């Protein structure tokens, strides 16, 4: 940017606060601004668009009739669907990919992520009756575990996926 154009930016203090641009200091030098505000929002609460997508999918799943798969599958449990939504509410971050939400024949819900060399599946048969399956292809980690009260292993797996 030419110096004359930079000098015209002196009065743009509002954009400086947002970390959008840089402006000359009182001595006429260009200042470098940090992006602290950007990072604060980038890693903040989750973007709520995932909620709409997941909720729409869950509504469709709980509307499935018994024998929806032609092999005697049970109706999807509403409490399992609500538990899935509540669990995601507590674990999703702004950069966490949206899971695939699929029905299971026992009436449960399965949340799945298959990306970034990570396979993560959480089968929710009922509230607090879950099974996690996790595979990290990069670090050669494999985990299969039933979980009912301590969901920290799920949170850690989802955090690993989010950070990657």
Element pattern in H and E: HHHHHEEEEEH
Taking the sheet with the most strands, its summary is: 5 strands, antiparallel
The helix fraction, in percent, is 25-40%
How widely separated are the two ends? 35 Å
Which residues form runs of ≥5 with pLDDT under 50?
A: 1-23
Class by SSE composition: alpha+beta
Radius of gyration: 23 Å
Number of helices: 6
Instruction: Enumerate the strands of the largest sheet in spatial order, edge to edge or round the barrel.
Output: 1-2-3-4-5
Query: How many extended strands?
Result: 5
Number of domains: 2
- Give the overall pLDDT as a whole number: 83
Strand residue percentage: 15-25%
Shape: globular
Describe the SSE topology.
Layout: H1 3-7, H2 13-17, H3 36-42, H4 49-62, H5 78-91, E1 100-103, E2 109-115, E3 118-126, E4 129-136, E5 141-147, H6 152-163
Antiparallel strand pairs: 1-2, 2-3, 3-4, 4-5
Helix pairs in contact: 4-5
């Amino acid at each position: 940017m030419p110096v004359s154009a930079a000098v015209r930016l002196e009065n743009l203090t509002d954009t400086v606060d947002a970390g959008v641009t840089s402006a000359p200091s009182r001595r006429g030098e260009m200042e470098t601004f940090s992006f602290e505000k950007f990072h604060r929002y980038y890693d903040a609460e989750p973007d709520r668009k995932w909620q709409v997508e997941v909720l729409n999918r869950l509504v469709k799943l709980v509307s499935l009739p018994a024998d929806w798969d032609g092999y005697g599958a049970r109706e999807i449990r509403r409490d399992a669907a609500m538990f899935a939504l509540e669990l995601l509410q507590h674990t999703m971050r702004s950069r966490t990919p949206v899971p695939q939400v699929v029905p299971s024949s026992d009436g449960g819900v399965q949340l799945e992520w298959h990306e970034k060399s990570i396979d993560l599946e959480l089968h929710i048969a009922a509230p607090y009756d879950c099974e996690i399956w996790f595979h990290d292809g990069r670090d050669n980690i494999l985990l299969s575990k039933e979980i009912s009260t301590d969901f920290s292993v799920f949170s850690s797996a989802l955090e690993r996926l989010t950070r990657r």
